[in-house]
Inverse folding.
């Protein structure tokens, strides 16, 4: 009986090992990138041939081939940064959807927020000066109290209000 149990365990172990190997082979073959994965990278690149056309929507045959190249590079284990660098090396930085954050390109990222903040500050100061009444300081010869000018219409209106009470 022990001999049968040992053989059964060996067969079970062999089946588990073969199942693991088969699953590994199936996983390696199933590593073809999806269209979404390819387009996620292609969306960040511009067609080197067409002007201002993202690589993921460009209808030319060249762009279709470049998307297939991205698919192959992903299948070969390339990272997103490696693929972008490949395109920059071959076609220049103009293929990037977002300029690299190096050198003078930082101006592209820093100038708009700086202009927005400066505009908000100028607008804030202008609104404060529009809302805040300007006070005129009385000179030494002028009186500190300003006599109120009574309008006839206002005095008649106030008199009518007193009568109604």
């Amino acid at each position: 009986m022990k001999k049968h149990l040992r053989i059964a365990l060996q067969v079970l172990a062999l089946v588990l090992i073969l199942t693991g190997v088969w699953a590994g082979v199936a996983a390696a073959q199933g590593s073809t990138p999806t269209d979404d994965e390819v387009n996620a990278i292609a969306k960040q690149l511009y067609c080197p041939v067409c002007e201002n056309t993202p690589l993921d929507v460009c209808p030319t045959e060249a762009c279709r081939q470049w998307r297939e190249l991205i698919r192959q590079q992903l299948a070969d284990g390339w990272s997103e940064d490696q693929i972008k660098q490949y395109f920059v090396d071959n076609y220049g930085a103009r293929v990037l959807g977002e300029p690299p954050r190096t050198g003078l390109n930082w101006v592209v990222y820093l100038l708009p927020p700086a202009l927005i903040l400066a505009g908000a500050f100028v607008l804030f100061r202008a609104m404060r000066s529009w809302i805040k009444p300007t006070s005129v300081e009385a000179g030494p010869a002028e009186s500190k109290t300003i006599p109120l000018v009574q309008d006839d219409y206002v005095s008649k209106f106030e008199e009518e209000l007193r009568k109604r009470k």
DSSP finds six helices and no strands in the chain. The radius of gyration is 39 Å. The chain has a mean pLDDT of 79. Residues 2-29 form the longest helix (28 residues).
